[in-house]
Amino acid sequence: MADSGVIDGPGRKDEIERAKSEGKDLTKEEKQRLRKEKKQQKKIKEKKDDKASQENEKEKKPVTSAAPASQPPTQPTVQKAPSAVPATAPVSVPASEASVPADKPTKTKAELKAERRARQEAERASKQTKKGETGQQAATSKPKAPPSDLQPVVKRLPEHIQVDNPDVLKKLAKKLERQQIPLRSDYGYKVSLFSHLHQYSRKAPLTQQLSIPSTVIHPAIVRLGLQYSHGIVAGSNARSVALLHAFKQVIRDYTTPQNEELSRDLVNKLKPYISFLNQCRPLSASMGNAIKYIKKEISNIPSNCKEDEAKNKLLNCIESYINEKIILAGVAIAKCAIEKQKISDGDVILVYGCSSLVNHILCKAFEKNRKFRVIVVDSRPRLEGKEALRRLVQKGISCTYVLISAVSYILPEVSKVFLGAHALLANGYVMSRVGTSQIALVAKAFNVPVLVCCETYKFCDRVQTDSFVSNELDDPDDLIVTRKGTTPLEGWENESSLGLLNLVYDVTPPDFVDLVITELGMIPCTSVPVVLRVKNVDQ
Amino acid sequence: MELQAVLMAAGGGSRMTDLTYNTPKAMLPVGNKPLMWYPLNLLEKVGFEEVIVITTKEVQKAMSTDLKIKDVKMKLDVVSIQEDGDMGTADALRHIQPKIKTDILVLSCDLITDVALHEVVDLFRAHNATMAMLMSKAHEFTETVPGQKGKKKTAEQRDFVGVDKSGKRLLFMANEADLEDGLSIRKSIMRKHPRMLIKTGLVDAHLYCLKKAVVDFLTENKSISSIRGELVPYLVRKQFSKTVNSQKLKDDTDDQTQEKNDGPLLISSRDEPLLQLAQERSCWNDHRGDMSEAYHGGKLRCYVHIMDQGLCCRVNTLAAYIEVNRLAPKLFEEPSVHPSADISERCQMGSDSIIGAVCHIADKTSIKRSTIGNFTTVKEKVKVTNSIIMHGVTIEEGCNIQGSVICSNAVIGRGADLKYCLVGNGQHIEPEGKSTKNSSDRL
Asked: Using CA atoms, how far apart are residues A84 and A477, in angstroms rounded to an integer?
């Protein structure tokens, strides 16, 4: 994900800044040294934070910033237990998880803010003194899932939501130059609320600036990038599958250069490709997870493995990932939904846009002879609902088609709403095509159950509460419509006060979603972090 | 490697024999550069590093001595074929089939254009097309053609090109010569693409992106000899044929011979299962309103990019040659006077004239809207207007040359007055000769 580059601690930041200021790339030795220091710092932090979690468990009372004074005296008693702490950490975690709901209602927003501020002060203090004094830090940290997250994390903002910051743009330009990838320039006037996001035009593809027999970027990746930017491959699942297919071709054509190891060199080869695809169209959450998986698999290849074996292994990994996470997950979700009577006879089901998973579920239910009818809700400018309508009607399902403006008119007839998701965020919010939150809201007002269908590989550990901070801006020229030969909005760029906004995603709060159907079963929206944690522990 | 470039430079220039009987078409000077330099320059600008050039031995010899072609930084892999003229473009492709390892971009040596090549190649890549080609809106040639008495318009065979609503997908292509009774379109095509635009005023630029499977197909089907004349219409027709679209290919025994012929084409067009899956899951369709999936399930697709702005010219007639001499120099930011030319101060030279290397232009000459080749000598009191003068020509004093084409090594005697004439290679025009709209190419 975009947030994967999280800085763990202040010490490491110093190191990296020092190296950068020296003006040369980190050599192998320096990298190893950095890695060692990182590990040491992590250990120190783990000790600090596990002490804190143990304290909080023992006390089980709301922790405020006033409490630090009382805590240092109890510290020395706990300090004898640091060696036992890492072993007990996983065990303590579920307990602390259980204590979280109890703690939550007792803390107010102001207290949380104060905690956060105190945490930052503590960081600054510890940076200056460089001692292991943990008093202030321990007091303010809430018991969170894995021990590493207990550290006060200063998250670095991903660059794709900082487009109006010229420094970030410069950094991006430098990085792309290093990778020999052309920079795609933004197009048109951006609405001020969204000026921090990229906005590209489909008429200026990235291939304009590439050489035609593309040598820097593998041809399969160029083709994929073009298909993304033209919208030929659209939809979370389709994009991931196409990405993995292109990676398979890249791996097949790859040869390890001399004095390099496949496990490290192949990952470096993939980085410019991923930047290129990001420039063509911002990566989706499912793609990000797939890339993480592949990178992990590549780095886990033992160094004594022969090249052909390694390549075959990787190709098989990709095949099995697609099979398990996408195809079989789809089958399992459909089975789950149908057998648990989520689609029963006489149902009127409302779907929005074209979600491959929801279409699959409905088609399977129809094959199992359930009697239901479908209402397809569609919205401009993509009009994806027409494609969903075509697929359902082809199977023989009786459908109704409305535009999103008619949703409140049609909802009294509806018995269930099935929605697809682009990603499920760690705080339970559902990120999906723009318009989904509207439908969920109206459905809630009419007391119609809303079910979201999503495979687990789309779960991401990002947190978002609004649709402004991180979104995608599509080509604004899509909004220009020709009516009977006239195009009223044709010269929109010349109007200084007119901006066209073509949003792609929005987030739906978990209060509007009643159930999420995944291949692990039917879970409430708020259990997403649990699933993520289980996945992390597995890996 | 993504694309290999193939330049077809063996053509004879059958429609401008006056110019080509001594100089091969590929080496005709246009703006003082050989004709085949222009497509090579286009490929080099875009980023190609290697080009396979199919040409005759004569041209190969001329290429090795030409300075401009030596300037080209790409690696030229020259393949020479017999000059008997029986080998068509498709035959030439079959000849170099062992060298072809990936998809190819086929160019003709007489194409002069400033098209953004990525437009054509993007269609080829994005839609996984079997063929993508370039066409341009035709322009009327306004200059008087020397050697033609009166405005005689040769009956040009029109091309009927049918494209779909978006203007990118090629649905129908036929030449007027092949349509005897009238234009008939199959019902299956109309059912799939109810809106078809048929255009007749288009010029085929002879620039094709072809999949490697097409070259393999050519090696099996030896009956196809010309790309433009036979292969392209065949591929366009094959898009909608039943054998390509039907899934049950192995069941029908009648279709087996057909299948053998089309074998390589079909195998290439059967997408891998993952690509199939991606397409199934994608919510994109290229058309709306009927029940079929994207591309109507067709695996073979042909695309065309139609240029409406910019220069795109094929130099295969005299009129085109003259037109292009006027326009081509504007494509490049080069000084119109070669630094090594010796021009006296009292010479009136228009800004749209081009003077080649090592020229001698004497006093009191007037050169307007003309191209003067390398090693040419122009003596005093000569008026040259609207003309093309090739290399090594000597023009004696007092001549008046208007709207003419004078080929290499010709000598124009003193006081000659040429209007709209075509003087062949090495010809001598008598002094005080007056010729109007004459074409002298006989030695």
From this structure: 61
Contact B125 A235 (CB under 8 A): no
Q: Which amino acid is at B190?
A: M
Judged against a pLDDT cut of 90, whether residue B335 lies above it is answered with no
Tens digit of each residue's pLDDT (9 = 90 or more) over B300-326:
999 999 998 888 888 888 888 888 888
Residue B273 C-alpha, separation from nearest chain A C-alpha, in angstroms = 10
CB neighbour list of residue A382: distance below 8 Å, 6 or more residues apart: A353, A433, A478
- The pair of structure tokens assigned to B64 is 């090795």
What phi and psi values does residue B210 have, to the nearest 5 degrees? Answer: -120, 145
Q: String of b and e for B264-285 (b: at least 16 CB within 10 Å)?
A: bbbebbeeeebbebbbbbbbbb
Return the residue of B nearest to A227 by Cα: B126
> What angle, rounded to 10 degrees, do the helices at A166-178 and A262-280 form?
130
Query: Given CB atoms, is A233 within the 8 Å cutoff of chain B?
Result: yes
**A19: amino acid identity, one letter:** A
**Could you tell me if the ipTM is greater than 0.90?**
no
Query: Letter for the amino acid at B305?
Result: H
A386, B3: Cβ pair inside 8 Å?
Answer: no
pTM of the predicted model as reported, rounded to 2 decimal places = 0.79
List the one residue out of A143, A135, A95 whose CA is nearest residue A119.
A135
pLDDT on residue A16: 55
**Which of B120, B48, B49 minimizes the C-alpha distance to B310?**
B120
Contact (CB<8Å) A212/B281: no
For chain A, the average pLDDT equals 82
Note whether B281 contacts A244, CB cutoff 8 Å: no
- Pick from B48, B125, B281: which is nearest to A237 by CB? B281
